[in-house]
Amino acid sequence: MAAAAQRARNQRLPPEVNRALFVRNLPFNISSEEMYDIFGKYGPIRQIRMGTTKETRGTAYVVYEDIYDAKNACDHLSGFNVANRYLIVLYFNPVRQSKKLSTKEQEEQLRKMQDKYGVDGQQHAKGK
């Protein structure tokens, strides 16, 4: 391993860095072979999942075997031009990606928590 590569492996990574990347702004007609060609230059890939529905077209998840390869790919491919489209490459964030709850679902979760902890949400109003 080269000295620079060894130094890179010894540095602490920011907490948001992980092996899974979320890619946006992909051309709709990009093939999985092209994805492996582009992202595979940065290291072995465990998996690529490309969006296929109307809402997810133009997006993909790329999972690397090694976290340092994922960081290198994210650093170098964010803004990369593919078929006149500039890629947006982000680290996968499960909290950000989780689906938004509807108001009804939020109210149901709140009611369950109130039941669990024996509160009714009116405790501050009772003493007045």
UniProtKB/TrEMBL annotation:
Residue stretches making up the RRM domain: 19-94
Highest taxon, organism lineage? Eukaryota
Q: Which GO terms describe its cellular component?
A: catalytic step 2 spliceosome; precatalytic spliceosome; U2 snRNP
- Give the UniProt subcellular location, in the record's own words: Nucleus
Q: Where is this region: Disordered?
A: 98-128
Biased segments, Basic and acidic residues type = 102-118
Key word Glycosyltransferase present:
no
Q: Name one GO molecular function term.
A: RNA binding
Q: Tell me which UniProt keywords the record has, alphabetically.
A: mRNA processing, mRNA splicing, Nucleus, RNA-binding
Q: Which GO terms describe its biological process?
A: mRNA splicing, via spliceosome
- The name under which this protein is listed is RRM domain-containing protein
